[in-house]
Design goal:
Layout: H1 5-9, H2 13-88, E1 96-102, E2 105-106, E3 118-122, E4 128-132, E5 138-139, E6 142-157, E7 160-169, E8 183-184, H3 194-201, H4 210-223, H5 228-234
Antiparallel strand pairs: 1-6, 2-5, 3-4, 6-7, 7-8
Length: about 240
């Protein structure tokens, strides 16, 4: 029996319809999938924008709170300072004094050391060694800082009554972090020689005159061999 091969190889209309339906379905699913992905991306972008705006608003609110706390505390200090000034105006006492205050400084990083300011080298036996670079050395220069009287404390011992005035560092304005406690004025400069003053008290002395306090700070910085580069950073040169 002889069969017509072309008859069997001829595409059947039903199979063509199935193929077209399958292609159409795949294209439809792909389109829906792409549209859904785009929708989700748009939603994520909107959510990211909302989150960023929320974080920005939160940061601005916290910053305003810090500013308000600072302004309130600053106003309290001004009122307290004015009251003390009026109270001691006739007594010849100062409600504002100056005192040397030190801060840690380092020279700019040099090119000889790594990011941790360490120098690497080999020993004569070939061992890998390292040491701290000279630029890692810390210096403690001092400069005059204004202190204002904030309170008094009466100390009684053996029927002797002593009154100490406590002064607060005016350069310490960060109220959200640790703030140093007021310190008593137990040592006031009265024209002593700087060498004797430094040997006995170091920075623990108050000055009524800022210029005199600056001279003493210059004396301390010279003794400590503070590099000119650091003094320039401090603005003392």
């Amino acid at each position: 029996m002889c069969y017509d091969a072309e008859f069997y190889n001829e595409p059947i209309e039903y199979e063509q319809m199935v193929d077209e339906f399958r292609r159409s379905l795949m294209q439809s699913v792909k389109k829906e999938f792409l549209e859904e992905m785009q929708r989700l991306e748009n939603e994520n972008a909107e959510l990211r924008e909302v989150k960023q705006n929320w974080e920005r608003m939160k940061s601005e609110y916290e910053e305003k709170q810090r500013e308000q706390r600072y302004q309130i505390e600053q106003e309290r200090r001004n009122v307290r300072r004015e009251r003390l000034a009026k109270l001691f105006e006739q007594c010849g006492m100062n409600v504002a004094l100056f005192k040397p205050k030190g801060s840690l400084f380092r020279l700019d990083k040099c090119e000889k050391c790594d990011e941790n300011r360490r120098i690497h080298f080999k020993s004569p036996s070939g061992r890998d060694l390292q040491e701290e670079c000279e630029c890692a050395r810390g210096y403690y220069p001092v400069s005059p800082v204004l202190y204002t009287m904030v309170r008094f404390h009466r100390y009684i011992k053996n029927q002797d009554c002593n009154v100490y005035a406590f002064f607060q560092d005016e350069s310490d304005d960060d109220y959200d972090c640790y703030r140093a406690d007021p310190i008593p004025c137990t040592n006031l400069y009265h024209g002593q020689d700087f060498s004797e003053l430094y040997a006995e008290l170091k920075e623990n002395v108050f000055f009524e005159d800022e210029a005199q306090c600056r001279l003493y700070c210059d004396y301390i910085n010279e003794i400590r061999e503070i590099p000119q580069e650091i003094l320039k950073k401090m603005g003392t040169e």
